[in-house]
């Protein structure tokens, strides 16, 4: 499994935790670090960038996702689906190397 895929999976877990438990990005990232322990620094670094990027831009990302899903409100999407869409949208809008 590639590093970015691992990072995206880790970020999804943290974003889900933020969405469900209402944790801050810092709390979710701390939990992520504890769970993944000695994982490659590149994996954790990319996961942290995704989590912070999505958390910092969540309203804009939700508006963009909502604009492209006229029959579904973002808050009605399943939490996993919603966070995958947020993460993918963030990467497409804010990363040039995707």
Describe how the helices and strands are arranged.
Elements: H1 3-21, H2 25-36, H3 41-56, H4 58-67, H5 79-94
Helix pairs in contact: 1-2, 1-3, 1-5, 2-3, 3-5, 4-5
Note down, in words, how this protein is organized.
The protein has 98 residues and is mainly α. Helices cover 74% and strands 0% of the residues. The chain has 5 helices and no strands. Helix 4 crosses helix 5. The chain is globular and about 45 Å long. The model has no long low-confidence stretch (mean pLDDT 91).
Topology, number of strands: 0
User: Major beta sheet, specifics?
Assistant: none
Alpha-carbon distance between the termini?
Answer: 17 Å
Shape estimate: globular
Radius of gyration: 13 Å
SSE string, helix = H, strand = E? HHHHH
Share of residues in helices: over 70%
pLDDT averaged residue by residue: 91
């Amino acid at each position: 499994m590639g590093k970015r895929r691992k990072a995206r999976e880790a970020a999804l877990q943290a974003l889900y935790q933020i969405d469900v438990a209402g944790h801050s990005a810092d709390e979710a990232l701390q939990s992520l670090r504890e769970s993944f322990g000695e994982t490659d620094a590149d994996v954790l670094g990319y996961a942290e960038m995704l989590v912070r990027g999505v958390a910092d831009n969540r309203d804009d990302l939700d508006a963009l996702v909502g604009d492209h899903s006229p029959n579904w409100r973002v808050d009605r999407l399943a939490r996993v689906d919603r966070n995958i869409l947020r993460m993918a949208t963030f990467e497409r809008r804010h990363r040039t190397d995707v």
